[in-house]
Amino acid sequence: MKIGRRIYYDLSSGNVILDTGERNGSVIETTIEQDFQNYKDLAERLPETVGFLQFNHGDLAYDFATCNGFRVDLESGAIVFSYPDLSNPEQPPIYRKPLSQEVDELKQSIAELTILLATPQQ
Prior knowledge:
Elements: E1 2-3, E2 6-10, E3 16-19, E4 23-24, H1 32-38, H2 40-43, E5 50-54, H3 61-66, E6 69-72, E7 79-82, H4 99-118
Antiparallel strand pairs: 1-4, 2-3, 2-5, 6-7
């Protein structure tokens, strides 16, 4: 069995409280209530102050592996990542949508432009 990660975050700031990580093998999926009982970081919080995002196993794997931080954008409710800037490592994190999503959007734009350019103009 493969279980995707859950990200629990503070509803007032978007900061991550807990990342359960991905699990596979002989694992059992837990409920949110069980997570609040089993994880100290959650047990110390009031459930109504905590939000969560559920991901399928493998979702955003590249982004989680290459980022140097992530949080939840409270306006959109989506996860945003910061990535290391090798030319300026002291720069504070800049959060943005997943790079994998940006790449997919660019591929789609290129495909649309290619079709437009290949279409005979009148």
